[in-house]
UniProtKB/TrEMBL annotation:
Entry superkingdom: Bacteria
Protein name: Uncharacterized protein
């Protein structure tokens, strides 16, 4: 029996592009720190994404709009398959 069910997103997501700086920090330290928060607040990157070479250019970093310290990586292909620009985006 599959416990996973389909859910549709109902809110706008806040995201930014992965930068060369992010990649260099990850290569040197093994994590990407969220600079606006105390040390230990890092961007979550799944083992599956790390095994596929992330973080890399084309990936996105999402954040919880109600808690900016909650940030995670979204792989490029997943982003392309599941997100589009909001009318509210600049």
């Amino acid at each position: 029996m599959n416990e996973f069910k389909e859910f549709k997103r109902t809110q706008i997501s806040e995201m930014r592009k992965v930068s060369d700086k992010d990649i260099n920090i990850f290569k040197n330290h093994g994590f990407i720190h969220i600079s606006e928060y105390p040390f230990g607040n890092n961007i979550s990157i799944s083992d599956a994404d790390k095994n596929n070479g992330s973080p890399k250019i084309g990936d996105m970093i999402a954040r919880n709009p109600k808690d900016y310290s909650d940030q995670w990586l979204i792989a490029e292909q997943y982003f392309k398959d599941n997100f589009e620009r909001s009318n509210q985006a600049e």
